User: Which sequence fits this backbone?
């Protein structure tokens, strides 16, 4: 199968990030955010003050981050790191992985889970990159405008807005959003995105709302807040430094008073991460969860 040259859209997939739009109507704006007492910048500042400093892990080259991101799907960072290490120990280079039999790739990554699904996906993606780019080196993406770099990555099979954002942000230091389940939940509860906004649209809205130099702080602080305080089933609103500006707080506090502490809260649509097409895994290289 022939594949288009660098930067050409594949098939019918057109990344939302490069679609040009005119000014949104009042109805459209209302559906994408809700009334809130706190801005994205204010939330970042308060959460950063509460949780910082964060230790940034060493970044992988972007082509390795691409493979690591596939391995991280539906598993923990520990398992995906183990599988990536095993893969590289077995083959040495990603070029060798691209040439390998799927069965051998599957055997190498079996310790990470879902190897039967991920092995053919890794081989396919690496060979797409080779056909598109002539090599596996993706460092050229750093020289492209953000939207173009994201569009290039989203040509690859199975690479959506979150995976593209992970590669651009963690491997290339570009201010790309990678909205995981914790960020999505916290932003919906704060009203930074509307209750019916999809995860793909959330990437657009939040990228526009957060200054480029604040994207790392946003990622690290919102993920940590979602893990420690703004939990899916039982948010700890009494501990929340953003409670004063959170539209969901009053209802959650009332429900907590009415429901036994061992049961999830079930009213008002705030209790779970409701995006049907959204994986419940976190962003690779996110801050470690405090288990206390």
Assistant:
């Amino acid at each position: 199968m022939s594949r288009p040259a660098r930067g050409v859209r594949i098939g019918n997939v057109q990344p939302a990030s490069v679609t040009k739009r005119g000014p949104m109507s009042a109805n459209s704006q209302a559906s994408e955010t809700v009334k809130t007492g706190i801005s994205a910048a204010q939330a970042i500042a308060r959460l950063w003050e509460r949780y910082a400093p964060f230790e940034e892990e060493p970044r992988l080259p972007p082509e390795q981050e691409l493979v690591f991101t596939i391995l991280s799907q539906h598993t923990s960072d520990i398992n995906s790191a183990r599988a990536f290490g095993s893969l590289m120990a077995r083959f040495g280079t990603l070029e060798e992985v691209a040439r390998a039999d799927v069965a051998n790739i599957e055997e190498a990554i079996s310790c990470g889970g879902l190897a039967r699904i991920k092995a053919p996906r890794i081989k396919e993606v690496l060979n797409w990159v080779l056909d598109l780019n002539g090599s596996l080196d993706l460092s050229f993406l750093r020289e492209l405008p953000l939207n173009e770099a994201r569009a290039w990555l989203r040509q690859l099979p199975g690479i959506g807005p979150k995976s593209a954002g992970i590669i651009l942000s963690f491997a290339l230091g570009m201010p790309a959003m990678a909205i995981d389940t914790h960020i999505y939940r916290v932003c919906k509860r704060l009203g930074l995105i509307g209750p019916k906004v999809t995860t793909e649209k959330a990437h657009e809205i939040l990228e526009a709302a957060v200054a480029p130099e604040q994207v790392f702080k946003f990622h690290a602080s919102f993920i940590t807040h979602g893990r420690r305080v703004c939990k899916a089933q039982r948010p700890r609103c009494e501990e929340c430094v953003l409670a004063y500006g959170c539209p969901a707080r009053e209802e959650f506090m009332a429900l907590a008073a009415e429901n036994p502490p061992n049961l999830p809260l079930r009213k008002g649509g705030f209790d779970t991460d409701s995006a049907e097409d959204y994986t419940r895994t976190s962003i690779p290289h996110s801050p470690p969860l405090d288990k206390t």
